[in-house]
Amino acid sequence: MEASAHTSGCDVFVKLGGSILDDPASTAELIPHLTTLSGKLRLLILTGGGQAAKRIKANQSAHGRDLYLFWRATALCPEVNAYLLASYSSSFAVVSCAAEIATCFEAGKIAVFIPAGAILNNLCFMPDWLVTTDSMGLYFAHTLGARRYVIVSDVHGIYERKPENGTSLAPIPYLGIDELERLPSSKVDSGFVRYYRRFGVPTIVVNGKHPSRVSAAICGTPTIGTEISLR
Length: 231
Hints:
Number of domains: 1
Mean pLDDT: 92
Strand content: 15-25%
CATH topology: Carbamate kinase
Largest sheet: 8 strands, mixed
Structural class: alpha/beta
Helix content: 40-55%
Strand order of the largest sheet: 3-4-2-1-5-7-8-6
CATH class: Alpha Beta
Oligomer: single chain
Radius of gyration: 17 Å
Low-confidence stretches: 1-6
């Protein structure tokens, strides 16, 4: 599908987890599988906050520091990772608003979202640790009219129970949101079910350490992972 001009909407919204970006080898291997899609789809990527965000959250929780102050700080972590991702290729363009997204797509590039302004000035997001870029990405995907939301993580998908080291459990291939809510734990954040019921976009969770699965998920081709729907 050719990129559409004069619109800030996107075809596919991707949340690229910090667990992948924190691993230089995994990131370098994934990049060409993304850049080959440049100009073929209106693709917008939101990065996770990675280890920096996790450490800020852990320290705030342990020491009882000002939640709002340090929640604001974690909103800046995806911005650093956005520039990190964009530094790998000129096929990426860093964007922060609708006008910049539209310009990026007109140029046939992949948009990498720096979200701090959109997060901190948004009436949907409150300072807590229940909602992360998993749910925020879902909200942005819905707002931009994405057909698919792809969550790129460091696991193969969502499991009935947390895999133990050395086990080879297969991920659940399809999950309705009610089924996801009943699971004892999952890879997505605690607010995801609530957000999905409000801002549901067909979603798939895939492992970024298998780059061909990421490009397949973006293109809507069947692959190993967990698809989430409202059913």
